[in-house]
Amino acid sequence: MPRIAIIGTGLIGASIGLRLREKSEIKDLEVVGADREFDIAKRAEKIGAIDSAIRDPRRAVSDASLVILATPVLSLRGAMADIAPALEEGAIVTDTGSTKTEVIAWAGRELPDENSFVGGHPMAGKTDAGPSFAESNLFEGARWVIVPSRHASEGAVRTVRNLVETMGATEMFMDAEEHDAYVAAISHLPLMAATAMFTMTRDSEAWPEMSKLAAGGFNDTTRLAGTEANVAFDIAVTNRTQIVHWLERYREALADLQERLSDEEGEDLFRHMAQTSWDYTSYREGATGREEIDQKASPMPRAELGNLFMGEALASKMRELTAASEERLRELDREERLTRRE
Amino acid sequence: MPRIAIIGTGLIGASIGLRLREKSEIKDLEVVGADREFDIAKRAEKIGAIDSAIRDPRRAVSDASLVILATPVLSLRGAMADIAPALEEGAIVTDTGSTKTEVIAWAGRELPDENSFVGGHPMAGKTDAGPSFAESNLFEGARWVIVPSRHASEGAVRTVRNLVETMGATEMFMDAEEHDAYVAAISHLPLMAATAMFTMTRDSEAWPEMSKLAAGGFNDTTRLAGTEANVAFDIAVTNRTQIVHWLERYREALADLQERLSDEEGEDLFRHMAQTSWDYTSYREGATGREEIDQKASPMPRAELGNLFMGEALASKMRELTAASEERLRELDREERLTRRE
User: Dihedral sign, CA of B8, B9, B15, B16?
Assistant: First the structure.
């Protein structure tokens, strides 16, 4: 019976299991799972994410032709060392860790040469942890980065591509360093930013009152502060340099915005905000990069349309602002005259 | 026929209108609306948010006993000046603006003394703008801050409280300065942070690739960058000082986190992340402040439970980290010996 072993049956591992058991076209496939906490493997079994929970990871991987490591990043090395002696000849190993440079290096050291390692990173998830939150369509439509190790066989890469396809995700090949630099910006920085924002507001004296006013905006912006400490810590430790780089750039970007805020004229600030809102809407509508925007042949290029729209909005906003500041000047003038009279 | 006039029939104004027409217990109530862009008032009429769209705001407020100003903040002063001569004696004026100090001052200057102004701020909304996105239950369960002006009559305050109740929201009384300080932290800072993060990543050379990897985490964290420029700009300009204060504190919080990231031991960082994740989960589950947590009588206080949990998790994480760094030392040692041999 063809067997796939999932080591680590939390949210990600269990979601993979559910999907495999639901959609895989492999005949008579058996999906087994192990977890450092046996109870979690048992829960994954109970919800139908795996056929059976196995206490010993070595027993779980024996007879498996594909092993999926879905533990937090820092546990991956231990898991590799653990299962290495029990791997079948030719068994393929993949993972779902959030960073790749260290993981690829660990695989080179811990896994036998005859077992191809093909790293993976599904760009999906949620803050809720554990198999109870697993969904078979968690990866539907998501990108799944594939980072083959240098010695991975073609067959191994094909197997992992099939896995990604079964998950309903879109594959994306990258090298490990490239991957880690990109996710530092669009995944790890948001995690750190949310953490910093939440701890800062929560430590404020006014938090009991402020928190009552907090609504969707605050909750969305800080959602990642609820990331399981295990996951957040491992990301921080294995991608430290890249994250620090982006944290520094982010602080600069905030300083830049702060400077724009101090612009009394307001014209530059309004332009900046209109441009941001416009770009963001385009991004969420599917424009994924500057090239795509430029390539779009349309009677009036997007950028010009933007300028046109912005020109009118800007003019009207500036009139409003001028009126307000003229009024303020008149008031200051009046106040000054009153003061002189006193 | 009792009449309520809504000036500004975008997302907020139209949502108020929808709810009023659906739930108000005022017999024969007529809700009229005006908007700087008549087309938007017409659309609000079309979706049933108002009984009729009126081109001239002065005509809209004549005969109205309650006037709701739901324009972007910077337009409020102009709207007040505009309608002032046409207000009925005793008509009550309220607003829905995101900042309150300037708004209260404007009302004092622009509105006749016999018309009570009671400021309001519903803590709900979405990034999508315009009456097409209006929902009659947009404010259900949300907080609605009420900031009466100094000369507002008791009857006027009662009317606005009734309005808030009709909206399904929970009233919260504050003074204007207090309100502006709090929302700077939990509403305006998230907006600025999202703006800075999105513009920074979008300006990166790697954006075309990175954006493909961006998933729920990035999208939630940056969602507010899509805020209509009109709204974002007005908030920035009318609450500048408070926002700058929080931007500075936020940059410090990020610098602090960056320093923790550089901690090679890792123990402090893990503690910090575990504490954050724990606190965030408590917050989202309804713990709104330190007092509430402390007051909760339970066989084992929450904080201790946390320590217990964290103690175990920490010990296990530290073992992992120690193993990893010992292994790293052994590797460095091996590499050094190899280099020497070369």
Answer: positive
Residue B255 one-letter amino acid: A
Fold of B180-329: 6-phosphogluconate dehydrogenase C-terminal fold (1.10.3660)
| B interface test, pick of A280, A284, A325 with most B CB neighbours within 10 Å | A280
Helical spans, DSSP H, in chain B: 11-23, 38-46, 57-61, 73-83, 101-110, 154-166, 176-183, 189-202, 207-213, 216-222, 229-238, 240-261, 267-284, 290-295, 302-341
Q: Does B328 touch chain A (CB under 8 A)?
A: no
Q: Which of A99, A126, A174, A197 should we substitute to test contact with B (largest number of B Cβ atoms within 10 Å)? A: A197
For chain B, residues classed under CATH 1.10.3660.10 are 180-329
Please tell me what DSSP assigns to residue B186.
Answer: I
Q: Which of A80, A62, A65, A85 has the alpha carbon at shortest distance from A8? A: A80
- For chain A, say whether B323 makes contact (Cβ under 8 Å): yes
pLDDT, tens digit, 9 for 90 and up, residues B19-59 = 999 999 888 999 999 999 999 999 999 999 999 999 999 99
Q: How far is B184 from chain A (nearest CA, A)?
A: 10
Complex ipTM: 0.82
Give the residue on A whose Cα is nearest the Cα of B72.
A317
The one-letter code for the residue type at A263 is D
CA distance A101 to chain B (A): 15
Instruction: Name which of A123, A131, A134 is nearest A10 in CA terms.
Output: A131
Second-level CATH architecture of B3-174: 3-Layer(aba) Sandwich (3.40)
Contact (CB<8Å) A250/B196? yes
Tokens, residue A318: 């500036």
Q: Confirm or reject contact between A161 and chain B (CB < 8 A).
A: no
Asked if residues A77 and A106 have their Cβ atoms less than 8 Å apart, the reply is yes
- CB atoms under 10 Å from CB of A327, counted, come to 15
User: Residue A125: its chain B contacts at CB < 8 A?
Assistant: 215-217
User: Which residues of chain B from 271 to 290 reach within 8 Å of chain A, CB to CB?
Assistant: 272-274, 276-281, 283-284, 288-290
How does pLDDT run across B125-140, given as a tens digit for each residue? 777 788 999 999 999 9
Residues of chain B with CATH 3.40.50.720: 3-174
